[in-house]
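Let's practice the habit of predicting before peeking. Look at the sequence and jot down your guess about where helices and strands might fall. Then scroll down.
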Amino acid sequence: MKNFVCLLLLFASCSPMKIVYTKAADTIDFNKYKTFNFYELKASGDTTTKNFIERTNILKNAIIGEMNKRGYLQTSTNPDLLINIGIVVREQTNFRSDATKYIGQQNYSLKSDKIIAELFKEGAVTLDIVDASQNSVVWKGTIEGIVPGNKSSLQKMAESGMKKLFKKFPVEIKK
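Done guessing? Here is the structure:
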């Protein structure tokens, strides 16, 4: 049983992030944009954890890194692009079936108990990149995966997740 739980935890911790959706607006010249910033983050639901601001800042820093690689500069004064971040996190439970048991003499039934093997959080991040002057979405992307519990793993996952998502962004990394 311990081996199965360890294997399950290993599989969950290594499960890849998956790009769910990306779409760029038609006929937009992304090279005309030079600067960006973020919309004010407004939280609702169960977002009152003490780590919420710190964790969203980790995600913002990963996004800033990817935007900077593409030649965009962050500014709070009249940015060309505004980035809206949507975050959804759900607590999930993995179950596994215990060994099947024979019950009864004449009723010949089989019984299988369910045992909780793992509790984890699964999340999705959606980025809406908006032309600030036109107030229209020019690019949208969503990625989902397992949300790690500790800060260093979260930072690594945010960076690799944004790197993967931004591979679908219409502007290449500047050399």
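How did you do? The chain has one domain: 18-166.
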